[in-house]
């Protein structure tokens, strides 16, 4: 049905036509009427951020947890440049989202906020789609939504502000997104791969984020081979509950699991690009047969070149391999019969050398793992603390685990925690951040979480220092004092922003904080006061 309306209303309608009910953003000259129409005319939910980059980060986490593209909107010029880190994070993480970005009027080349927005977006690795004319609004929105899903990255729809009050005839346009499973492996390379797997005496199945949908097929293959299962960081939690799940593969493995991986003779990799941290810069793959399965050809051969590469769907390929193993009556390897899984998954504790009036980080993490809500969504900011959290705090499944380290930035975690909470309002969100990351980005948006009434638990690993830099000075026997800070009380800051704040500087105070979580209402911040000399090094 055709309707007469203004361009800003047409954009709102087009977004709604794609099933979008939630939009994150910050309003300005070029998008305020669009936001108003999305809320008033379309019945959508608008989540206002305090910073433009935050709105993109919220949409990224929303997309990950909800399993559908996130949508955000900002105005022009500095609003878009404020989004560059967030867009790069999304592009590096292959996360589908659309940013509706205003642009300065076409007729005003000397506008104060004018900049080459196409080049700004291009530098981040995100895609760029131009709103070409008032008459092409529906198709331009449809193209942006389509591209976000098939290219698996943020797409910025550039919207000149002087189009907004033009009258158009609106007709809905939604493009089909082709989501059929990838192809089935076949041919000589498949035969070679099966031969390597069949002859292996110590095979291991490794799954990455690209194989999350294939859990059941991979478990059946592992059970048939009697092979242990492992995941990359981004697939953390995929094999929870399996008796031979050795958890994260690579530099984040336990010492015992690392040794086990080193002893294996064939790694069958599904849906992982084999990052340097996964392979420990190739050391863990040395002397082994490597079979790599991925639907994306560009994911294969990036970090290391496999012995057999199958460009195919993970689940269907696992089924195909299983079929031919059965047809050839290949005996199981017996590898899992040798394993003590409790030893393989136990991370070392180490000596407690914590200073007075501080809490030991490893002890705090082990207690938090026991006490935090089990149905949590786990979000981690960047910083020295993060790898210990990844190793010691569990997530129910990969979709409930949000990593904000795709660009190596700190200060992105709380914003993504908000997006995760909006995507799953019935579940608690647990977010770990460092003191530097909280000051950089978290403090901007804590009140946003309060205003939204989210069930959010923020845990600040507060060593009063920039930890990664602190260690480098110490390693060179230099004075680390330039990395140390006298921050305000984060617990008091949380309370002043409308939430609950608890300071923890001892084991006894940690127990008090954990008890207080049982009666929490709205966002809670736990300020873990740590000794900068006692926080474990990053496992990278």
Protein described:
With 540 residues, the protein is of the alpha/beta class. It folds into 3 domains: 168 residues, Thiamin diphosphate (ThDP)-binding fold, Pyr/PP domains (Rossmann fold, 3-Layer(aba) Sandwich), CATH 3.40.50; 157 residues, 3-Layer(aba) Sandwich (Rossmann fold), CATH 3.40.50; 169 residues, 3-Layer(aba) Sandwich (Rossmann fold). The strands form 4 sheets. A 6-stranded parallel sheet has the order 3-2-4-5-7-6, sandwiched between helices. β9, α9 and β10 form a beta-alpha-beta unit. The longest helix is centred in the last third of the chain and has 18 residues. The protein is globular, with a radius of gyration of 25 Å. It starts with a strand and ends in an 11-residue tail after the last strand.
CATH topology (fold) name of the largest domain: Rossmann fold
Rg over C-alpha atoms, rounded to the nearest angstrom: 25 Å
Domain count? 3
- Give the biggest sheet: 6 strands, parallel
Share in helix: 25-40%
Question: What is the CATH superfamily label of the largest domain?
Answer: Thiamin diphosphate (ThDP)-binding fold, Pyr/PP domains
Q: Calculate the mean pLDDT score and round it.
A: 95
Q: Which class of the largest domain in CATH terms? A: Alpha Beta
Instruction: Indicate the overall shape.
Output: globular
SS content category: alpha/beta
Question: In the CATH classification, which architecture of the largest domain applies?
Answer: 3-Layer(aba) Sandwich
Q: List how many beta strands DSSP finds.
A: 20
Strand order of the largest sheet: 3-2-4-5-7-6
């Amino acid at each position: 049905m055709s309707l007469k309306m203004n361009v800003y209303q047409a954009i709102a309608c087009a977004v709604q036509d794609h099933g979008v009910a939630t939009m994150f953003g910050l309003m300005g000259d070029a998008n305020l009427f669009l936001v108003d129409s999305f809320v008033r005319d379309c019945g959508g939910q608008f989540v206002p951020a305090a910073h433009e980059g935050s709105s993109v980060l919220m949409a990224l986490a929303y997309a990950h947890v909800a399993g559908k593209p996130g949508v955000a909107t900002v105005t022009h010029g500095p609003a878009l440049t404020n989004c560059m880190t967030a867009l790069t994070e999304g592009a590096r993480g292959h996360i589908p989202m659309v940013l509706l970005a205003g642009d300065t009027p076409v007729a005003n080349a000397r506008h104060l906020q004018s900049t080459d927005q196409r080049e700004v977006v291009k530098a981040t690795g995100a895609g760029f789609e131009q709103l070409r004319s008032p008459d092409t609004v529906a198709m331009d929105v449809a193209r942006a939504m389509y591209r976000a899903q098939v290219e698996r990255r943020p797409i910025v729809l550039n919207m000149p502000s002087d189009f907004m009050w033009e009258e158009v005839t609106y007709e809905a346009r939604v493009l089909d997104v082709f989501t059929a499973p990838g192809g089935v492996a076949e041919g000589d390379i498949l035969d070679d791969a099966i031969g390597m797997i069949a002859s292996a005496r110590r095979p291991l199945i490794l799954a990455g984020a690209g194989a999350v949908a294939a859990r059941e097929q991979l478990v059946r293959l592992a059970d048939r081979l009697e092979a242990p299962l492992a995941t990359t960081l981004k697939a953390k939690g995929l094999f929870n509950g399996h008796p031979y799940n050795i958890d994260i593969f690579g530099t984040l493995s336990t010492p015992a699991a690392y040794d086990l991986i080193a002893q294996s003779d064939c790694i069958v990799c599904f849906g992982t690009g084999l990052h340097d941290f996964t392979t420990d810069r190739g050391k863990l793959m040395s002397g082994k047969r490597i079979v790599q399965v991925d639907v994306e050809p560009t994911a294969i051969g990036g970090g290391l070149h496999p012995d057999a590469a199958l460009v195919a769907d993970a689940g269907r390929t696992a089924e195909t391999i299983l079929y031919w193993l059965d047809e050839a009556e290949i005996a199981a390897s017996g590898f899992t019969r040798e394993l003590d899984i409790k030893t393989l998954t136990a991370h070392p504790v180490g000596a407690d050398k914590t200073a007075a009036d501080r809490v030991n980080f490893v002890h705090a993490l082990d207690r938090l793992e026991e006490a935090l809500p089990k149905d949590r969504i786990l979000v981690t900011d960047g910083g020295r603390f993060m790898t210990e959290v990844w190793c010691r705090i569990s997530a129910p499944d990969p979709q409930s685990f949000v990593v904000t380290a795709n660009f190596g930035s700190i200060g992105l975690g709380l914003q993504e925690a908000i997006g995760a909470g909006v995507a799953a309002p019935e579940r608690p969100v647990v977010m770990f951040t460092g003191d530097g990351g909280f000051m950089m980005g978290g403090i901007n948006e804590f009140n946003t979480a309060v205003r939204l009434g989210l069930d959010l638990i923020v845990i600040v690993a507060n060593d009063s220092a920039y930890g990664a830099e602190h260690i480098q000075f110490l390693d060179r026997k230099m004075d680390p004092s330039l990395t140390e800070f006298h921050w305000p009380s984060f617990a008091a800051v949380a309370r002043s922003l409308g939430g609950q704040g608890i300071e923890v500087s001892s084991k006894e105070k940690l127990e008090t904080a954990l008890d207080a979580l049982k009666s929490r209402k709205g966002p809670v911040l736990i300020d873990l006061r740590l000794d900068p000399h006692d926080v474990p090094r990053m496992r990278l």
